[in-house]
């Protein structure tokens, strides 16, 4: 194959001053968050002697189980508290406790799930890091992976930060009000309000609340980050298909007059909008590129054109394989998330409508309600974007000057177009597609349950009266 340097290979040959060098790891921040919650083992090998490496591995596993225990024991104690207050018949207190129980049970599931699937997840990271293209085929124009990488980095950073702030406010509420109570109404087999015991229990609940916020955010941040990176690779693919003919001319060492004429027509004000989802298209520095490529040996235009198409096929296959792994990892996770959000949204709205009107209570439940809605919106929206953006191969090919050289690669193009018609979908347990229709369905189901709860509450009030 002709010079992997000019179609997103590992060499950092830049097409212009606006191009970006290749990064070896696109998930540095995400991995740090996963290590912080023990979902990926900590790497302490650089800080301890070699002969202590077995201890280091055991400590890494122990830390992950401690994080899991911190949220799981709270979930179980909250569940016990829920069963205890069922006897009272106080629907408001029952829903309060049930909301927190569901949140902590899902945090426990999230911690255990990614600890169990960490090997497969790291394989996906490694696959994307090794095979991603950091820019499109060299041609009249190019796009870089950098826009999608920056967006994924910001999404992980700010979403996790928002989740942590939201749950920590709940944990600090008793201190802010000067109340000698615990943040979470857990059942304990002892008096948790006694001196010294109160402080110890408060610290454990605060740590559990912090871990819950990170575990809550990590799942959706991971989903969003991977999909944004994949969508950036689709942008790279579509720009490469658009530049097939100019890339072949450039790589075969032919005259630059035709390519420069095409470049002169690329007016920023006349470019088609929405060609790419996250990437920005720039003009290539053809003079610099042509000087480098003149040193290459093979000058066959037909061969260069065919090899360029093969590279696009390889890139498309890599993207589809990464999406298949993403679906494998997330379809059980999304199923549990859908069920959790449906019931949690219903209970949160019910508590907000029927519950006590104290300021702290309203702020806390509004935070959880916003986090719940936004989190599931992220799953639905980016699932929708992946499905829609994955079937635009034909549009990208029609933007190239295909009519000039289609006879040279006609059969290959037809096969490529047929194989690219299948939309990429992320499902919830192979039952539902994660898209905006799923979001609408979940909200509709949640409000149906809300109506049922309100009728139960009204009936209870009438019986008391």
TrEMBL record:
Coiled-coil region list: none
Broad class of the protein's primary localization: membrane
Molecular function via GO: odorant binding; olfactory receptor activity
Claim: S-adenosyl-L-methionine is one of the keywords in the record: no
Keyword field: Cell membrane, Membrane, Olfaction, Receptor, Sensory transduction, Transducer, Transmembrane, Transmembrane helix
Membrane topology: Multi-pass membrane protein
Cellular compartments per GO CC: plasma membrane
GO BP field: signal transduction
Pfam families named in the record: 7tm_6
The protein's name: Odorant receptor
Cell compartment(s), UniProt: Cell membrane
Record carries keyword Cell division: no
């Amino acid at each position: 194959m002709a010079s992997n340097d000019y179609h997103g290979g590992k060499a950092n040959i830049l097409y212009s001053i606006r191009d970006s060098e290749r990064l070896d790891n696109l998930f540095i921040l995400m991995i740090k968050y996963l290590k912080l919650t023990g979902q990926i083992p900590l790497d302490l090998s650089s800080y301890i002697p070699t002969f202590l490496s077995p201890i280091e591995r055991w400590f890494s596993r122990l830390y992950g189980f401690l994080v899991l225990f911190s949220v799981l024991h709270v979930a179980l104690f909250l569940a016990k508290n829920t069963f205890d207050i069922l006897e009272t018949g106080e629907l408001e207190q029952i829903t309060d406790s049930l909301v927190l129980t569901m949140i902590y049970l899902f945090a426990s599931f999230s911690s255990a799930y990614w600890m169990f699937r960490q090997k497969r997840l790291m394989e996906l990271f490694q696959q994307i890091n090794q095979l991603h293209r950091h820019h499109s085929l060299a041609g009249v124009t190019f796009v870089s992976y950098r826009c999608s990488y920056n967006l994924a980095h910001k999404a992980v950073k700010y979403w996790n930060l928002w989740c942590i702030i939201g749950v920590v406010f709940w944990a600090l509420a008793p201190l802010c009000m000067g109340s000698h109570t615990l943040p979470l109404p857990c059942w304990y087999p002892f008096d948790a309000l006694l001196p010294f015991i109160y402080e110890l229990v408060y610290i454990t609940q605060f740590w559990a609340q912090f871990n819950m916020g990170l575990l809550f955010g990590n799942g959706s941040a991971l989903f969003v980050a991977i999909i944004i990176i994949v969508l950036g690779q689709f942008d790279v693919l579509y720009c490469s298909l658009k530049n097939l003919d100019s890339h072949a001319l450039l790589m075969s060492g032919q005259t630059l007059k035709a390519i420069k004429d095409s470049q002169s027509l690329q007016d920023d004000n006349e470019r088609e909008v929405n060609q790419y989802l996250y990437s920005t298209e720039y003009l290539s520095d053809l003079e610099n590129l042509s000087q480098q490529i003149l040193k290459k040996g093979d000058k066959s235009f037909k061969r260069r054109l065919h090899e360029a198409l093969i590279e696009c096929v390889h890139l498309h296959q890599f993207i589809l394989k990464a999406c298949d792994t993403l679906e494998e990892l997330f379809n059980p996770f999304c199923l549990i998330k859908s069920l959790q959000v449906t019931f949690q949204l219903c209970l949160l709205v019910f508590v907000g409508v029927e519950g006590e009107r104290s300021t702290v209570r309203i702020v806390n439940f509004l935070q959880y309600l916003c986090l719940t809605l936004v989190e599931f919106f992220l799953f639905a929206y980016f699932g929708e974007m992946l499905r829609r953006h994955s079937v635009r191969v034909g549009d990208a090919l029609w933007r190239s000057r295909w009519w000039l050289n289609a006879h040279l690669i006609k059969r290959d193009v037809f096969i490529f177009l047929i194989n690219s018609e299948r939309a990429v979908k992320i499902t919830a347990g192979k039952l539902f597609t994660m898209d905006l229709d799923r979001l609408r369905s979940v909200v509709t189901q949640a409000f149906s349950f809300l109506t049922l709860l309100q009728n139960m509450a009204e009936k209870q009030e009438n019986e008391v009266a």
